[in-house]
Amino acid sequence: MLHLLDANVLITANRDYYPLNRVPEFWEWLVHHGNEGSVKMPIEIVEEIRDGTDALARWLSESEHLDALCLGEEAEVGLVQRVINEGYASDLADHEVEKIGSDPFLISYALRSRADRYIVTTEVSKRNCSGPSCVGVRPGTVSGRLRWPGGQICG
Predict the structure, then answer these.
(1) Could you give the CA distance from residue 66 to residue 50 in angstroms, rounded to a whole number?
(2) Which residues, 6+ apart, have CB-to-CB distance to 44 below 8 Å?
(3) Range of the domain at 138
């Protein structure tokens, strides 16, 4: 089972629950599971964090962490377009494209193997059908998909 993390998972963990400087064990656990191949982040999502200037951006930019967590795949343009068309709209304005950010990329990576890939996010949809659910991807929340400190990744 591969858990694809949205940027908000790391941002929220660092800000609210497991600050890098106070709970390094969580971040070591995350890197361990990244090295094991059960937790990854597509490069488009990684770059959302690395574009920042905070401690989390610096942490994720370190080669040990980047290599462990970055998914070694390239986006399939057709899948990304399908996600935008079916999960959002086919006629998005520039400001709407900017608002959805890298989410279509994250969803497209999950679509490659729906049976064994989950999206883990802290976001809650405000519509009945948006993003992952509209294109058949099983999203999960952090509390429902990742568990720490027990070291268990739930499937």
Answers:
(1) 10
(2) 75, 102, 105, 106
(3) 2-153
pLDDT one-digit tens code per residue, 68-122:
999 999 999 999 999 999 888 889 888 888 888 899 999 999 999 988 998 988 8
Domain count, the chain: 1
- pLDDT value at position 108? 95
Q: Are 6 and 103 in contact (CB under 8 A)?
A: yes
Distance, C-alpha 143 to centroid of its chain = 14
- Classify residue 96 by its DSSP letter: H
Q: What sign results for the dihedral spanned by CA atoms 130, 133, 134, 137?
A: positive
Q: Of all residues in the chain, what percent carry a pLDDT higher than 70? A: 79
Tell me the average pLDDT of the chain.
84
Q: Do residues 111 and 83 lie in contact, with contact meaning Cβ atoms separated by under 8 Å?
A: yes
Amino acid at 108: S
Token pair in block for residue 26: 């969580």
Backbone angles phi, psi at 21, to 5 degrees: -80, -10
